[in-house]
Structures are given as structure tokens and as C-alpha cells.
Please model this.
Amino acid sequence: MSLFGGIEAGGTKFVCAAGTGPEDVREEVRFATTTPDECIGKCLEFFQAIQSVHGPLSAVGIASFGPLDPGPGSPTFGYITTTPKEGWAHTDLAGPISRALDIPVGFDTDVNGAALGEFRWGAAQGLNTFVYLTIGTGIGGGAMVNGTLIHGLLHPEMGHVLPPHDWMADPFAGVCPYHGDCLEGLASGPAIEQRWNQKAENLPPDHQAWDLEARYLAHGIVPQIYILSPQRIILGGGVMEQAHLFPKIRRQVRAILKDYIQSPAILENMDQYIVPPGLGNRAGVLGALALARAAAGE
Ligand code: ADP
Ligand code: ZN
Model:
């Protein structure tokens, strides 16, 4: 069987892996996100060492932070584009890796990668239309619709929708540098930390932060249900490590929908409708491997 490489390119850290899937990750390395040159160099060093031990790689998949250009045929395909992350705007990430290794490179958003990994091996097996949202340092979403990962004009930016913001109940202005109180601005990990003056991971489960968080996330999820009609919604990212959020979010989604969507998936089986990633916190790096397999035509 052929061997694949995967790169989970995050704003904080990079994870590179070589293997074929969840049961077969031969080697893995992680390092801090520094400069593009340094990170690309470390990726190449890892994959070249892999090839000398395990033989040639068939393809590499990159699941990256963005915004980025995932459009094959576009002159800036494979680039991270207008990111505010210092030193990374307009960086060609896929090109140097593809040229140095001389193999196909699959390139997509971190969340589309995770969605593909979940489709192949995780909580979206057997579905053709679903959403993967991550709630972490930022909020982002990927989606598969009728079996195809959505790109469109650029790629979805599901974290920047505007949930209702009751300024009396929640005077916090939000942290999004572009919009202030968009979903990411109000409900990302850094938003929780700034509003309550402590890290999200340190807030007790009975803290009032979590009801507010569940309400904002539900207002981000409901439009996805109306617009894409997903068969399932997968919620990953650091903040969703708070497992007690799931029942709260499910209740809020039901309350906002008001039984308008008449499907047993929502009316009876909400526990299987809004779920954590089947691949857990491995969704990112395994998603990158899934992108590599797709790039190789598998
Ligand atoms: P990234 O978004 O950088 O890929 P994560 O998905 O881990 O990384 O998100 C990091 C954010 O999630 C931080 O704001 C952190 O405070 C928050 N976070 C991480 N772990 C937890 C946890 N167990 N409970 C709540 N929040 C968490
Ligand atoms: Zn925003």
C-alpha cells in the first residue's frame, strides 16, 4: 500500500505525519509555527527522512489555517493569503513542498481537512452532507455537501456570522479584529478568556460562561441547519473539550428551531445529530492524511 504525508498547519503549531490512516501513523512530529521558511524547511526535512526509511510518498495533504486559496487552477493555489498572522500573509505553502518532493499536494482549510477525515474514518462515515465546526483560538467551519467539500468563491468562513448580541446581558465587545462581536468574537477560546478573566479550561462546569457560550454556538449552528440541511454537525476544537457543553448546545438549538425542521434526527436523535469528532483531537492531522489520499486519487 502507498504511503502518504499529512501536514496540519496551525497558527500555533505544525503537526506532520506519515502513514495511511488512523490505525497506521508510522511517524509524527510537531513544532511551533515560526516563520514560513523555517516551517516549510522542517516539513521537508521530516518527509525526506520518511522517504529514506519507508520509501516514496504518493502524495502530501496540507490542512491549513487561513484564509487561503484552495482553488486548483488559481494562480495563488496553495497560498495562505490575507492572514493577519505576522509573516504569513501571501505565503506559498503547497508549492515549495510539491516541488521539493515532486508529488501531488492536496491543500485545503484545516476544517475542510478535518471534515474529510471525519467522513473517511470518523463521525461522518456514510453521510454526504455535514458540517465540521472548530471552536478554539478561532471559530471556523468546513462542510461537505452531496459528497463534495465546499469551496465556492474562496472557502466558507462560518465563524464570522453575527449571533444576536444582548449588550445588557453580555456587555463584552468581542475579540474579532474585523467584526468585534461576530461568533468568533464572542465565543472563541480567547473571547471566553477575556470576558471572564480566566482561561476557558479553568472555568468550572457550573460557571455562567457556559450557558452563554452554548447560546452563541447554537445561534451559529442553526443557520447552517437552515442553509445546508446537514445530516450531522460535528463540533471540535479546544473549547469543545468541555463535554458538558454538548447537551446545553443541543437544547439551545432545539429551542431556536422551535420544531420547524421536522426530522427525527433533530426531534428524537439530537444526541447523534450534534456530536464530537469521532477522531477526537486527531481530526486535524488525520484530515491532512485524508487530503493526501484524495490528492492521489483515492
Ligand atoms: P487551535 O485553535 O489553536 O488549533 P485549540 O483548538 O486547542 O487550538 O483551541 C485553543 C483554545 O481553546 C484556547 O483559547 C484555549 O483556552 C481553549 N481550550 C483548550 N483546551 C480547553 C479545554 N479543555 N476547555 C476549554 N477550553 C479549552
Ligand atoms: Zn469576525
